[in-house]
Amino acid sequence: MVLGSADVLVESWETTKEDATWKVGVSKESAAGIIDKIIKWIPKPTVERESGKTTDTRGGTRTVGDLAQKREWTMLLNLPEQKPKPESVIYNESYKHPVYFDTNKREVGNYHEPKNKMDQIKDLMRVMDAQILKYGAENITGIEVVGHASRLGDTEPNITLSEGRAKYVADLLKRLYKVKIPDENIKFRGEPVDEGNDKDNSWKDRVVWVTIKAVRKTPYPTR
After folding, report:
1. Which residues lie closer than 8 Å to 91 by C-beta, 6 or more apart?
2. What is the distance between the alpha carbons of residues 102 and 112, in angstroms, rounded to a whole number?
3. Which helix (H) or strand (E) holds 175?
4. pLDDT of residue 122
5. pLDDT averaged over consecutive 10-residue blocks of the chain (223 residues)?
6. What is the pLDDT of residue 192?
7. CA 49 to chain centre
8. Where in 27-76 does DSSP place strands (E)?
9. From CA 150, how far away is CA 162, in angstroms rounded?
10. Measured between alpha carbons, how far is 150 from 165 in angstroms, rounded to an integer?
11. Could you tell me which residues come within 8 angstroms of residue 35 by beta carbon, excluding any fewer than 6 positions away?
12. pLDDT at 13
């Protein structure tokens, strides 16, 4: 960025010199006498100035200086690197669904959901179908199953019982939907869901919680 006037003061000059021209000739004056005037008879050179002239012209220019001082600044703008905007925004979401079991059972069998009396296998399929429809099968990122047991009985048998329940639900989903559930996503606790529950054999504790993890993609907002 340059600020200031570009006007300058320029001086110019020119000098002309004229020189006269001279003519050299011999006069035609008559000789007088024979001997004593021989020398005088020798023509005398004459110099006459004529009207001609020679001209020597010299000149030049020079810049005295700027009338206004020019100041210069260098401005550097560091612009951030332009990154392409993503086509969509991704949200990680999950949905939890319970599968209940009868006392000391590792399979659902004919045991209906205690509160609403629904067929639990059909209900689990309905939930899975709804999640696949909502997110797309390719956007289901993982399924986790965690087995629990009630306070009834000893801890060691309850751990084994809750493990069997978790594996049962995982195998059921693998059979129905051909999904891969890693072993580390099949967990068991051998204890109630709610530690504050004062009932020894609550149906709420004889449960496997199924967590369906997915990503939701929405178009990137534009203005």
Report:
1. 215, 216, 217, 218
2. 9
3. helix 155-177
4. 96
5. 52 64 51 56 57 60 58 78 76 94 95 94 96 93 95 90 97 94 94 74 93 87 67
6. 87
7. 91
8. 45-66, 71-72
9. 9
10. 12
11. none
12. 61
- Provide the 8-state DSSP code for 43: P
What six digits make up the tokens of 140?
């289901």
Contact call for residues 135 and 144 (beta carbons, < 8 A): no
pLDDT for residue 140: 94
For the stretch 56-72, what's the b/e string if a residue is b when 16 or more beta carbons lie within 10 angstroms of its beta carbon?
Answer: eeeeeeeeeeeeeeeee
User: What local confidence, expressed as pLDDT, does residue 128 receive?
Assistant: 96
Tokens matching residue 47:
């110099």
Tokens matching residue 194: 């709610």
Burial, 132: exposed, middle or buried (Cβ in 10 Å; 0-12, 13-18, 19+)? middle
Straight-line distance from the first to the last Cα atom of the chain, in angstroms, rounded to the nearest whole number = 34
Structure tokens at 217: 């993609």
Considering only CA atoms, which of 127, 18, 1 is closest in space to residue 70? 1
- What integer pLDDT is reported at residue 174 of this predicted model? 95
The helix/strand/coil state of 126 is helix
* 8-state DSSP, 35: S
Q: Are 143 and 213 in contact (CB under 8 A)?
A: yes
What is the reported pTM? 0.60
Rounded to a whole number, what is the largest CA-CA distance in the chain?
179
DSSP state of 147: E
